[in-house]
Design brief:
By secondary structure, the chain is mainly α. It has helices at residues 5-8, 15-29, 59-67, 114-131, 137-157, 183-196, 201-218, 224-237, 242-254, 258-271, 276-288, 292-305, 309-321, 325-338, 342-358, 362-375, 380-392, 396-409, 413-426, 431-451, 457-467, 470-483, 487-499, 503-513, 521-533, 537-550, 558-568. Helix 7 runs parallel beside helix 9 and helix 17 packs antiparallel against helix 18 (396-409).
């Protein structure tokens, strides 16, 4: 869909300011024709008449909720994992914000598509970047926030059919609803239910889980404060209820607070040893804390207690981290055979595609990504993985087109960096400026993530080491290593030390990153490069060759540098 009419006649130089003005206008106007008792003029839901306000919370928390009280995306489906995401619902209000707008006429639907609104906003940011190269990071983050939220607010201000009369039954508040179909429909149903039953603690907990899922699938960290508010409401009504604690674990993991996620998961499992969400959250937390032996035991236990798609995918990843690729693929194939919902199918097939790509098996990867997209043609990880595989096969034009689609919808750090590197390798006129635009948006996303409670040090370290401030990269990598010792944090710290010229310090971390036999060509390339820099020529050459043999197209720039380094050391 085209941008809103208010933007059609703007010159390219005026677009950032126009986008901000439009965002502010929509926020102030809200939806005057929305469902009774619900408004968005102030960015917060109206209070339910039956439940007078009695809560008192710090003003800054209330403001954070108001700033992101948005309409959820209309086309999201669940993925079969418990790492879910969120948007809206304030902790000091008894009614949730509107999920679907009112309808102006039974025969006319004028709701703009959220992704198209986001596409327009992201393009405005990218165009502005070429002229606003020295813009302060805060300004860039604000523009990215427009890209992430303007479409959602526009949907809330528009008039859509059938929104006010959502049928509500007992299933509307069941956590299983999150895996049964459209996430947006589930959120709409839950919100409609909670407007009439504001004391339903299970409903609030399930709404929070849906918000976490929405943030995860859309890559929008501004949803997390609303998920937190929903869980707070649930726990205030019924302290220590299982669904809310499971949700807290999922939210903590999404914000990279893995110790807290483990604590919440263990708390649930003491009361219910068969909680699938808690079993899965426990595996995730142990993996992300670098406690791989414990994670393996947790995966075995979860498989014995609650076998199913969410457990199978985690069981497979634990084996992949140990280099047992054949078992990982076998388990994922079993999970795919057991999957029934489009969300589960796309999630498992996409995971299979990533596993194949890591081994340099590009034909299998494309087939797996095709299976994922057959189930859900808009599934982001499969679109991203397919573009990455096309780049590895040398089809740069298709790869750039595919990655441009991905980042225009969901500007996340990894695809932004990869698109920037694809521009650099193409080297056409203006490509360097286009690449710099992508790297600037990475910084903006990180700022937005931090503002919404996400620990983004690993993202900072990975992106800044190659395309940003190398001192910031090292600072972030050290901070992340202090929190958790994983192969990923070891690799990030090793590389950050290397780009800062501290290769002797880097070498032990690079070796630790590859010590589990995890098949990751980027890690092996980093180790080989650091070994060459520290005088270990034979080892360095061997590891560079190993990285290229395993996955010859592991990175648009890194693979080329690995080949060049091998040639230089003959």
């Amino acid at each position: 869909m085209a941008p809103r009419e208010t933007d059609d006649n703007q010159t390219e130089a005026d677009q950032p300011a126009a986008a901000q003005r439009e965002w502010e206008r929509l926020w102030k106007e809200g939806d005057d024709d929305g469902p009774a008792g619900v408004g968005v003029e102030s960015g917060q839901p109206a209070k339910a008449d039956a439940e007078p306000e009695t809560d008192t919370e710090p003003e800054d928390e209330r403001d954070a909720d108001a700033d992101t009280s948005e309409t959820p995306d209309a086309d999201t489906e669940t993925s079969g994992t418990t790492e879910t995401s969120g948007t809206s619902g304030t902790a000091d209000d008894d009614s949730p914000p509107p999920s679907t707008p009112a309808h102006s006429s039974a025969d006319e639907v004028v709701t703009p598509h959220l992704d198209d609104e986001r596409i327009a906003a992201v393009r405005r940011v990218a165009a502005a970047g070429r002229r606003w190269r020295n813009l302060q990071l805060a300004g860039c983050a604000a523009l990215l926030a427009v890209a992430m939220t303007a479409g959602a607010i526009a949907v809330g201000a528009a008039k859509d059919s059938g929104a006010a009369g959502v049928a509500v039954g007992s299933s509307a508040v069941s956590p299983e609803l999150l895996a049964s179909g459209s996430l947006d429909a589930s959120i709409a149903s839950l919100q409609a239910h909670l407007r009439t039953q504001p004391k339903d603690f299970d409903g609030w907990a399930t709404l929070g889980l849906a918000y976490v899922e929405q943030a995860r699938t859309k890559g929008d960290p501004s949803r997390y404060p609303q998920a937190q508010a929903a869980f707070q409401r649930s726990l205030k009504i019924s302290p220590a209820n299982e669904n809310a604690l499971e949700g807290r674990a999922a939210l903590a993991a999404a914000r990279h607070e893995f110790k807290e996620a483990l604590t919440y998961a263990d708390q649930v499992l003491k009361e219910n040893p068969y909680s699938e969400r808690a079993l899965c959250s426990r595996i995730d937390a142990l993996v992300e804390l670098g406690r791989y032996a414990d994670a393996s035991k947790a995966a075995d236990l979860a498989d014995a207690r609650k076998p199913g798609v969410p457990v199978f995918t985690r069981y497979a990843y634990v084996h992949e981290l140990r280099g047992d690729v054949s078992t990982a693929r076998k388990v994922l194939e079993q999970a795919l055979a057991a999957a029934t919902s489009p969300g589960d199918i796309s999630y498992v097939a996409g995971t299979l595609g990533q596993l194949a790509w890591n081994q340099g098996d590009y034909k299998t990867a494309l087939n797996d990504y095709g299976r994922a997209l057959a189930a859900d043609e808009n599934y982001l990880p499969a679109l991203e993985g397919r573009a990455r595989t096309q780049a590895a096969l040398g089809d740069r034009a298709a790869a750039i087109k595919g990655m441009e689609l991905v980042v225009s919808r969901y500007p996340l750090p990894q695809p932004l960096v990869e698109l920037g590197e694809l521009y650099e390798t193409r080297g056409a006129e203006g490509d360097r400026a286009k690449a710099e635009d992508q790297y600037a948006l990475v910084d903006a996303w990180i700022a937005l993530a931090r503002a919404n409670g996400v620990n983004a040090d690993l993202d900072t370290a990975l992106a800044a080491a190659d395309h940003g401030d190398i001192k910031s990269a090292l600072k972030a990598a050290r901070a992340e290593w202090a929190r958790r010792h994983t192969v990923h944090t070891a690799d990030a710290l090793a590389w950050a030390l290397h780009v800062n010229g501290r290769d002797k310090e880097a070498l032990p971390y690079a070796r630790r990153a590859t010590a589990t036999n995890y098949h990751n060509a980027s890690f092996i390339y980093h180790l080989g490069t650091i070994e060459l820099a520290t005088g270990h020529k034979a080892d360095g050459r061997a590891h560079l060759a190993k990285a290229l043999k395993l996955n010859p197209g592991f990175s648009p720039l890194g693979a080329a540098k690995a080949r060049k380094a091998l040639e230089a050391t003959k």
